[in-house]
Amino acid sequence: MENVLFIGPYRQSDEWGHLSRSLLKALCISKKIKVTSRPVFLSANTTYINISDQDILQAELNKEESYDSVIQYTLPTQMVNSKDIGRSIGVTHLETTSNRQWDNYLQLMDKVFVSTAAEKNCLSEKVREKSHAIGGSIPELTMEIPPADLSTDFKFYFFCDSLETKSGIDALLQTYMSEFTSHENVSLNVYTSNPQQLEEKLDTTTKILGLYSSHSYYPAINIVPRLSHDKRRGIDGSDDLHTNCHCFIDPSGMNGFKTAVAKSMAFGNPVITVDKTSMVEYINDENGWVVDSNEELLLCPDRPFKDIFTAREGYYMPNKISFKKAMREAFGDRILYHKKSKQAKQSAVKFSIERQSKVVEDILCS
After folding, report:
1. How far, in Å, CA of 131 to CA of 126, rounded?
2. Partners of 192 in beta bridges
3. Helical H runs in the chain?
4. Predicted confidence (pLDDT) per residue in 79-124, tens digit
5. How far apart are CA 224 and CA 241, in angstroms?
6. SS3 174
7. pLDDT at 186 over 90
8. What is the rounded CA–CA span in Å between residue 92 and residue 316?
9. Which secondary-structure segment (H or E) carries 307?
10. Which of 331, 310, 361, 364 is nearest to 99 (CA)?
């Protein structure tokens, strides 16, 4: 039995929290691993959530005098390094094409866990040699969810907590608003924690397009606010969108495993994504749309850790011509859409918690 201490941000409400909870759950269900967990917070602006999962709650109660391994997301200043621990395993989720701020820290680890092969390729050669791409998972994955009704409007949807250009929001709004009109039965549903700022972004996009001053010409855009009390209670209000919408859009080429993308596929909703995102390990022309992209540089000064991004890094944005073609095809070709929808749901078995548990178990117990 492998005795593991897990230190991670699994009580955060953001994407790092989702990924950390999934990894912790994967450790908990293994019959070859006994896990003790301790929460940390890697962002000053995140919301603390309550957890009801009994496996995770039990792991928090466990106490051991020594551990075979410690798996930790912590910063270098918080790093656990003790004679009572056999080996240290660092976990990180890289979002840009290079990430120097983590490299020195990860070099101190015996092993490194990342979610995808694309993230692994972003690491320095020295760190890459001891890294493992363990994938991501959806603990509540079910294949029994019926597809959304297509007899009414076709609904694209997108999750957007960041309104910065790197999130892809500008490219998405400009592409959607220039390709479709109010006369078509189509809508874009945006799930966001910043509804007021998004309204301002829409006004700016209208001015950029410069074709019409009236919003009445443009296709429907529905802003779906994410409520702060839902975050604290650990409720994912996005499930309503997964259930009632048809095609998820991931316009950002940022690296890292994206829970929303995986979940949309589990609901049978094909995804439009860019060709440089790490999720192309799971998305292809059979189960979604992969569009061309262009690299953009982050020409900005170093920023606080909470945003992870630093200077001299890059990210990918969709080519708007390729983006338009994919959106039009998803909306207009129902036969192709149904084919991709069926394949997306089948592909989602890769996101099962059991699969990730087996991958991690094999690494730790080998």
Report:
1. 9
2. 225
3. 15-28, 54-61, 100-107, 117-121, 125-128, 169-179, 195-209, 228-233, 239-244, 259-266, 320-332, 334-347, 353-365
4. 565 556 778 898 887 665 445 666 777 888 899 999 888 888 878 8
5. 9
6. helix
7. yes
8. 20
9. none
10. 310
DSSP 83-147: TTEEEEEEE----SS--HHHHHHHHTSSEEEESSHHHHHTS-HHHHTTEEE-----TT--S-PPP
If residue 150 lies in a helix (H) or strand (E), which one and from where to where?
Answer: none
Q: Of the candidates 16, 258, 278, which has an alpha carbon nearest to the alpha carbon of residue 122?
A: 278
User: Amino acid identity, residue 354?
Assistant: E
Q: What is the pLDDT of residues 231-287, one digit of tens each?
A: 544 455 688 899 899 999 998 876 678 888 999 999 999 999 988 888 888 999 999
Bridge partner residues of 314 (DSSP): 297
Q: What is the pLDDT of residue 124?
A: 83
Q: Provide the residue count of the chain.
A: 366
Interior CA angle at 41 toward 298 and 278, to 5°? 45
Predicted TM-score (pTM) of the model is 0.84
* CA pair distance 1, 86, nearest whole angstrom: 14
CA atoms 68, 71, 72, 77: torsion sign: positive
Measured between alpha carbons, how far is 310 from 246 in angstroms, rounded to an integer? Answer: 35
User: In angstroms, rounded to a whole number, what is the distance separating the alpha carbons of residues 337 and 159?
Assistant: 21
Rg of the chain, C-alpha, whole Å: 21
Cα separation of 43 and 46, whole Å? 6
Question: CA angle, 128 as apex, 122 and 131 as ends, to 5°?
Answer: 110
Residue 162: φ, ψ to 5°: -100, 130
Taking 80 as the threshold, does the pLDDT of residue 68 lie above it?
A: yes
**Three-state DSSP state, 2:** strand
